Amino acid sequence: MSDRLMTVNAYTTLDYVEGKAVGETFEWESVAVVNATADREDPDSVRLQLEFDNLSEEHLPKHMEDLELTPEQARALAADLEKHADRVEDATETDATE
């Protein structure tokens, strides 16, 4: 993904995920970058960032989503991700043993 707004390096949380942008009149799939971070000095929030590779997208201008989360919100999101990851993993393991 060239011409990014986000800095992507060895510390980026996920430098390649498959994503989908859905609008009222369009649905578009692309690769994306997802990052969780906080300021190095005196952090006051957790930031969750998302940027799609939109070189071929006509509905969305180049942009980045940047969510500011409290520590409690970040922990709630992490717990929900863990719960759903376990559910998907369990389903995958069940399918493999059948």
General description of the model:
This protein is of the alpha+beta class and 98 residues long. It is 28% helix and 33% strand. It contains one helix and four strands; from the N terminus they run E-E-E-E-H. It has one helix at residues 71-97; strands at residues 14-22, 27-37, 46-52, 65-69. A four-stranded antiparallel β-sheet has the order 1-2-3-4. The longest helix is centred in the last third of the chain and has 27 residues, at 71-97.
Concise synopsis of the structure shown:
The chain has 98 residues and is α+β, with helices and mostly antiparallel strands.
Low-confidence stretches: none
Number of strands: 4
Rounded to the nearest angstrom, the distance between the terminal CA atoms is 39 Å
Outline, from the CA principal axes?
globular
Please give the radius of gyration in angstroms. 16 Å
Please state the average pLDDT score: 90
* Structural classification: alpha+beta
Helix content: 25-40%
SS element count, helices: 1
Along the chain, the helix and strand elements come as EEEEH
Strand content: 25-35%
User: What does the main sheet amount to?
Assistant: 4 strands, antiparallel
Strand order of the largest sheet: 1-2-3-4
